[in-house]
Each structure stands twice: as structure tokens, then as C-alpha cells.
Amino acid sequence: MVAIHKDSHYSSFHRFLFLSDSGLRCMAGVSVFPRRVKLTRGFGLTRQRTRKGALSVITAALELKPPPYSLDALEPHMSRETLEYHWGKHHRSYVEKLNKQIEETELDNMPLEDIILTAYNKGDMLPYFNNAALAWNHQFFWESMKPGGGGKPSGELLRLLERDFGSFETFVQVFKATAATQFASGWAWLVYKANKLQVENAVHPCPSEEDKKLVVVKSPDALNPLVWDYSPLLTIDVWEHAYYLDFENRRPDYISTFLEKLVSWEVVSTRLEAAQAKAIEREKEEEEERKRREEMKRRGEEEEEEEEEEEEEEEEYVQIRKMATTDDSDKD
Ligand SMILES: [Fe+2]
Predict the structure, then answer these.
(1) Cα–Cα distance measured from residue 13 to residue 38, given in angstroms and rounded to the nearest whole number
(2) Which residues surround ligand 1, an ion (CB under 5 A)?
(3) Measured in angstroms, how far is the CA atom of residue 141 from the centroid of ligand 1?
(4) For bias kind Acidic residues, which ranges apply (predicted)?
């Protein structure tokens, strides 16, 4: 059972979603228990509004967005055949299946990120989770690459990679090892960990890491770091369908080619900038919330004090009246 409540304290882009406590379990080595999820709008598939059915219900189908380059633009590192198959069939299929699953439901006009968080359901995933997350992951993956990519990042991104991994070369080793060791199908991610707010939907996999840090994580199947409240910056799809046509079963070669020839570090830098801005915004919201609660508490305490003072004054008045009455009696 899902209930959505708007909280007037937060902007219209923020909602809290409370999910059922049923079906708690561990998944992929990550323990999952009831938590509260903050939903935000952001990256997601665009929607095409259509009028459907005899009742003319307005629905908004999620659209399959093409990669930001032609399907042969990544050759010779990723072939046109791979893109035709991977984007044209697999990715298309996730979007189409998701649209069917959510058609004319309460999810129909929800941003894709919110659909993912709703469907994750504290690890007890609802049927549309896989298609929603895979639709998001694939668009994010296509946009992580560009023709003539690779090389080395610069600026703030490089500074943080060097700060958090020791050197860019060490980050590359960690990312390669993480992607290579994801058992069976899944994803490797570079994320910005800034989960200062409540992550009520899942326990994140790096609890000992400090916030405001770059972290490399992997996820099985469709799972993505949005459910841990991380900000994804870069991902590589390590499902076999992503590389088999070009590299057969040589996943390490595919990963090296991705990093050395395809990654768009400019896109990753832009995502980092957005993630840091979001973290600052969240801190402001948290601070405002803290002040609001303190003020409410202070007012509550003041009211309590005033009530106590009034009671004491009343008691004093009663005592004085008694004494006055006694004095009058003595005079008589
Ligand atoms: Fe894929």
C-alpha cells in the first residue's frame, strides 16, 4: 500500500513517500528495513501526452529517448550493431513494458525517478521496478558516453577523484575491478554520496564512508544508486548484451575501452556540479527544518512556562484571599 503526502515545508518538487513495512529482506548483501524516501524530480525520460480510450483519459507515456549521437558514432569502440540491438531493442523494450505496467495508474504522471523509488519498496520490489530502473539506467548510460571520449577529467571532478581515491589512476583501477567483479548482470557506478537527508527506502552500501564523497559501487540486475539516495555520476552496463557483439565474453576489455575511449568526462563533471548543488540545497532545507523544530519546541516550552506562571499566580492569589479573609475574621 502506498500513500503519498505533501509536506508544506518542502517545495512542490519534494514529497515524502511512505511505504508499507511488509516484505523486508536483505538483497545483494544490503540489509533493507523500513525507511522514508524523499522523492525529487530530475533526470528522467520525457513523456508524450496522448488521449486514450473511450473515456478520453489523458495519459503520459514515457518516451524512448535516443542516445545523444548517431548509432554508429561510437565505432570502432562500440558498434552500430550493438547500439541497434542494445538501445533499439533492449532499452525500447524496458520503456514499452513500463508504459504498459503503469498505464492509467497513479504512477502514470510520476517522474521516472519517483517511479523507481516507489517500486523499490524497501527491497520488496514491485513488478514495475526492473523496467523503470532499466529504462533510467540505460538513458544515463548512453549519456555517459560520447564519440572521442575517454582520456582524463579536469577541474573539480579530477580534484575530488584524486582526493577520494588517491589518484585518477587508482580510481580507474577501482572502477575496472568493480565492474569486472559484478557477478552476472548489473552495473558499476561512480556516485556522489551526499545522503544527509533521510534515506528511508534502503540501507546504502557504504555506511562508513563520509558524506560529500565520490564512491564507486556496483549493483545487480536493474538496481541503481537512486534507492540509496546517492547521486549517480557515471555508469557502465555490464550485462552481457552490452558487450557481447563487440567483445564476446571479454568484459575487462569492454570496461577498459569504455573508460579510455568512450566516457564523456564533461557530462560527468556537469552531473557532479548538479549533485553538489543539490547537496547544498538539501543542507539548507535540513537547517531550516532544524530551526523550525527548535522554534516550535521553544514556543512549546514558553507556553508551558507561561501556564505554570499563571497557575502559580492563581495559587498565590487564592492564598492571599484566604489570608485576607482570615484577617477580616480576626477584626470581627
Ligand atoms: Fe543493457
Answers:
(1) 10
(2) 237, 239, 242
(3) 9
(4) 302-317
- As to burial, measured by CB atoms within 10 angstroms (0-12 exposed, 13-18 middle, 19+ buried), residue 331 is exposed
What is the CA(135)–ligand 1 centre distance, in A? 9
How buried is 309 (Cβ within 10 angstroms: 0-12 exposed, 13-18 middle, 19+ buried)? exposed
- Classified as helix, coil or strand, 142 is helix
CA distance 265 to 149: 8
- How many angstroms does the Cα of residue 152 sit away from the middle of ligand 1? 25
How many beta carbons lie within 10 A of that of residue 174, not counting itself?
Answer: 17
Reading phi first (left if > 0) and then psi (alpha if -120 to 50, else beta), residue 39 is in beta
- Cα–Cα distance, 172 to 214 (Å, whole number): 13
- CA distances, 82 to each of 44, 88, 237, 319 (Å): 23, 9, 12, 92
Q: Which residues contact 65 (CB under 8 A, 6 or more apart)?
A: 45, 46, 139
Count Cα atoms within 13 angstroms, Cβ side, for 313.
Answer: 6
CA of 89 relative to ligand 1 center, distance in Å? 10
How far apart are the CA of 138 and the centre of ligand 1, in A?
Answer: 6
| C-alpha 284 – ligand 1 centre gap (Å) | 37
Burial of 132 (0-12, 13-18, 19+ CB in 10 A): buried
Give the Cα separation of 81 and 84 in Å (integer): 5
CA of 316 to the centre of ligand 1 (A): 79
**For the whole model, what pTM was predicted?**
0.76
Ligand 1 center from residue 90 Cα (angstroms): 7
What's the CA-to-centroid distance between 238 and ligand 1, angstroms? 7
pLDDT confidence band for 38 (50 / 70 / 90): very low
Is the predicted pLDDT of residue 242 greater than 80, yes or no? Answer: yes
- What DSSP assignment string belongs to 207-237? TTSPSSEEEEEEEETT--GGGGT-EEEEEEE
Among 128-137, 293-302, 313-322, the least confident range: 313-322
